[in-house]
Amino acid sequence: MKKIILFCLTFLFVLPVKAELTHPIDLLNAMMEAHKNRNYELHYILQHSDNIKSMKYHHALENNHEFAQLLSLDNAYETILLRNNAISYLGFNFTPFSLKGTKILDALPAVFHANFNELNHYDFVPLGKSRVADRIANVIKIVPSDSTRFSYTLWIDEQNYLLLKSELFDNQNTLLEQFRVIEQRVNDQFDNLIPQLKTMLLPPVNTQNSLVNTPLAWQVNWLPVGFKPISSSRQVIPVGQGQEEVESQLFSDGLSTFTVYLRSQGDEAFNNQFARQEKLILFTHVLGNREVVVIGDIPMSVAERIAQSVVFR
User: Fold this and answer.
1) Under CATH, to which class is 24-206 assigned?
2) What are the tens digits of pLDDT across the range 44-95?
3) What residues does the MucB/RseB C-terminal domain cover (predicted)?
4) N or C end of the chain: smaller count of CB under 10 Å?
5) Please, is 74 exposed, middle or buried when counting C-beta atoms within 10 Å of its C-beta (0-12, 13-18, 19+)?
6) In the beta sheet, which residues pair with residue 155?
7) How far apart are CA 188 and CA 190, in angstroms?
8) 256: Cβ–Cβ under 8 A, 6 or more apart, which residues?
9) What's the alpha-carbon Rg for the chain, to the nearest Å?
C-alpha cells in the first residue's frame, strides 16, 4: 500500500504544471495573443459618462484567418463583420458598406488590439488580483510617461488571458470609458461563426473617391513624443447637395491615436472650438480658408497644439 501511495505522489510531482504569468508585460502580451488566436464570445457593457451600450463580440480563427462580429444588443439592429481583411457595416438606419481592415475597432477599448512591446512611453504597474464576471483577474495599470496621453487600468482573465474589464482615465483622473464583460464563452474546438460569415453576402469594399497614403500638401509640425504617422488619405464626401474634398493623417503611439483632418472650406465661427464625444476630443482651427480638425483620445491642450502646428508645404 505504501508503495502505491509513493508511486502516486511521485507521478503527481512530475506532471507538467502551467506556469503562472506574473510580469505585467507577459500578461499583456498573453492578452494580445488570446484576442487574436482564440475562439471566444464576449457579452459586455461599454460606458461613456451616462451613455451605456450593451454589446456582443464574437471572434474565431481558421487557418490563421480571423473572423469576427460586433453586434449592438440595444435599439436598432447594427452589426460589424470581419472577413477576408474587410470590415462590413450592416444596419437598418444606413446603407451597408465595407472598408479594408484587419481589426474591428468600433466599440472596443484601444487596449484590445494594442502591441504592448511597442509602447515605449508607458509604465506597466501590477495591482494584484480581483474578480470580474465570476472570473479571477490580474489587474494592471498602464501609466503614461507624460501628460500628452491617458492612462488605463486593465483586468485580465487569469486562466485564458482575455480582457474582462478596462477603464480609461484622463489627466484629471476622470473616468472616460469603461469596458466590462458580463459573460464570456471560449471554444477553441469549433466555432459556428466561421461557416455563417463565409456564406453571407456582404457589400464590396468601397474604394471609390478615396486615395490612401497619398502625398499631401500640408504637414503637422508638432507631435507629442512617441507619436508617429500611420497613414494619410484624400477622399470626396457628400455634403448637402454637393461634395467636399477632405484630407486626413492618422497618428498613433501604439495605444493612443488621433486623426488630423483638413477640410476644403473653413468657417471662422468654429475657429479654436472644443467638443467632446464620448472618449474623443475634437478641436477645430481655421487656417486661411481651410479648416483643421483634430479628433482623438488625447488631452484638449494637446489637440489644440497639434492643430495650430499644421502648415502648408
Assistant:
1) mainly beta
2) 999 998 899 999 999 999 998 999 999 999 999 999 999 999 999 999 888 8
3) 216-310
4) N
5) exposed
6) 139, 165
7) 6
8) 110, 149, 150, 227, 296, 297, 298
9) 23
User: Using CA atoms, how far apart are residues 163 and 44, in angstroms rounded to an integer?
Assistant: 11
> Given strand 163-169, what is the order of strands in its sheet?
97-100, 86-91, 78-83, 65-72, 51-62, 40-48, 175-186, 163-169, 151-157, 135-144, 122-132
C-alpha cell at 256: 493612443
Strands 163-169, 51-62: parallel, antiparallel or unpaired by DSSP? unpaired
Q: pTM (2 decimals)? A: 0.87
Domain locations along the chain: 24-206, 218-312
The angle at the Cα of 29, spanning 28 to 30, to the nearest 5 degrees, equals 90
CATH class of 218-312: alpha beta
Q: Which residues pair with 226 in a beta bridge?
A: none
